[in-house]
DNA sequence: CGCAAGGTACGATAAATTTCGTACCTTAGG
DNA sequence: CCTAAGGTACGAAATTTATCGTACCTTGCG
């Protein structure tokens, strides 16, 4: 058995601004992005984020972020780890994440 | 009678990133923002934008942009003119509009 | 092994968004 | 004055999104 289960992630070239902005328009999801940005590339577990919602809903939000191309997820069977796709985003939409991070949690 | 009818616009301080990003996540609305950015402050009429939708729907999109704080609208009875709230946005979320404009229509 | 922790998938419900038709309003211009 | 052009407001339908409960799966650990 593989150590990790495959998860779909968009290629850099297919990351759409529509989906990225829609993903970032939610405060919980933006919070995740902010925390990941602060972690400087260190993977963070889903369970570690302060999102006061049901498990199924958390799964939903992380999927939105992943399918938008904002985060990279690795499945470990129990627990998943997340990293921000900083370089990919900077290549695709230069300055966007910087502006979002600078804005803070609001 | 006043020459213009008042329209509600958010104060700079009450512009929310949630609403701004949600507004920008629609391609038609982002197109409007792009065109206004290119007009360099020259007001543009609603009717001038290439949005192939019913009139009522166009009204809806312009309202979303206005209430998010992205554009300033002036009513002239027939016709409205729109300008991008460039300075306000730059003050509130530095770098955000620049990144959006740089990304282009996608 | 057997259980707890972390997470998913499915299905349902609720809420928000998008789109439109219709009726109506306002100004410009003949 | 009368009409056309640009837009709104209201209400409705269709679509999307957010939220959750429940059942289930996987790994770590005692």
Automatic annotation (TrEMBL), chains A, B:
<dbReference type="InterPro" id="IPR036388">
    <property type="entry name" value="WH-like_DNA-bd_sf"/>
</dbReference>
<protein>
    <submittedName>
        <fullName>Transcriptional regulator</fullName>
    </submittedName>
</protein>
<dbReference type="InterPro" id="IPR036390">
    <property type="entry name" value="WH_DNA-bd_sf"/>
</dbReference>
